Amino acid sequence: MRMFERGWLSSNNVLFTGESPALVDSGYVTHAPQTLALVHHALDGRPLARLLNTHLHSDHCGGNAALQAAYGCHTAIPAAEAGKVAAWDEDALSYRATGQQCARFTFDALLRPGQALELGDLSWQVLAAPGHDPHALLLFCPGEGILIAGDALWENGFGVIFPELDGESGFEEARATLDLIATLDARLVIPGHGRMFTDVAGALERAYSRLDYLSAAPSRNAENAVKVLVKFLLLERQRVALADVPGLLASIPVVNSALRQIDIAALAGEGARVERVDGEPVHPTAGASTRRVGGPPAHASNAGTHTTPHDALYTKLATWAIASLIRARAARIDGAFLVDA
Ligand SMILES: [Zn+2]
After folding, report:
1. Less Cβ crowding at N or C end of the chain, within 10 Å?
2. Looking at the chain, which residues constitute the CATH 3.60.15.10 domain(s)?
3. Is residue 270 pLDDT above 80, yes or no?
4. CA distance 223 to 320
């Protein structure tokens, strides 16, 4: 068994070599060639027999299509997503909502909580892990105490609690998932992102504490979601014109949902305090661009002429998000561009 630790744009991948080689999660679509190369090299040219996904976020299944094209591998996905994948419903599958991309793939089998699996000559249990994603799954090997956790538990935290952004319950489910993990005798966790770790108790303690912090004020989860989505855009594109950020944010439906939980006036105050970071202005220009994620210019005739309250709202949000990422050293400004850091 090998873990390929990837950058944050792509999830980690777990490769089981042996009789029937299997891969858990396949990264983001723009990294698919790299995923194929990693698998090809590790298997020494032998075919990949099976592909499984912990959940169907774009950074976990973006390489599915390429792997299927290369190997015709048997693919198993969470059962609750079957209808959406069969119909390739990009709205229901979160790709349109997040402004992210995923190449269309198919499936051969479904994973359900309670199922048993053989992977790499080891027996694994499929467990439900709602919270970050309502249909996410864990894979646990009781014999070896290994947990493949997806985005339910990282060494420091877990993925954005997406259901809460739409006013649905997610914090409670995330807590129940952590409670479940605490009952497993996991000695090694392979997370969806970041390095694998053995201090499971420490990671759980940090995750509970983060969950307490987020659930005490849902705006915190919403603000975190906006930052994560902008960082994801930067990881995908490496650089984005500052003037494009408000328009990009406005075109992402999840950001629209998150905005309902964000006190923009309070954030705008925060943005004003960090008006200049590292000597660089962080204010994108309202209405200067209305380019949509993954689409052509929406209403370019607006450019720079007049701003609507809608534009002003997204300019404030963009100003705050840019300043936050710069402070966290997750981005920097290069001339008129926001650049991944
Ligand atoms: Zn995820």
Report:
1. C
2. 2-216
3. no
4. 10
